[in-house]
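Recall the central idea of this unit: under ordinary conditions, the amino acid sequence of a chain determines the structure it adopts. In this exercise we apply that idea directly, starting from the sequence alone.
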Amino acid sequence: MEFVYSTIANLKKHNIMKRALFSSALVALLFSACSKSDAVAEMAPAPENAQNQQPAGNTVETTQNGSWVTGWENPSTWSKTAGNDNVSIFNTPRNFKQLDQTMLNRGAIMVFARGYNFADVNMNTPLGVPFHFYLPYERMNFPVFWRYVAKMYGIDLNLEMHNDQSKYFIGAQPNVQLRYFLVPPEALARMNMTADDLRQMSYTNLVNLLQVAP
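Accordingly, the structure predicted from this sequence is:
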């Protein structure tokens, strides 16, 4: 994965996930969202169980211009792994048969999230992944990082947080929602747009462009 976050004092070195606590001057921050241009997706081989990664009952809608869009989904499965320096990583997979090599190479993939504020379920303005968010708890001066990895026939969404934030996430899991947008290269050509054009769009502008319900 590629992680680029300018607000972290000490960046991850080598290939391990090392994070350092921010200075006390940052404690007062509530949240901060990363630019979508920082990193969008990383390609990886398809897992053997890719066909079992689609949450039960969730469907993919084909838009008028030939794109594929899901509704707002509550992930049915989260797996937890331990990182370095008291970091926990939560992962949820989503299968897409449409994500072939052409789509990965030349299409546009966007993921939006709601429910990222584990302290306030009413804060539901969609944010485009990747981003990071500071939880409004005292002494919570390390953000929760939201990232995704696009690969053959699936997308993995990852949340990285300090261990003391995990309890808040576990309690808030029912409120976490994800929505996926897949725009193939031929649809981009018909709109005379690039993948980067779509990735820079706000959620409202994207659903309006693709003519789907918000």
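DSSP finds five helices and ten strands in the chain.
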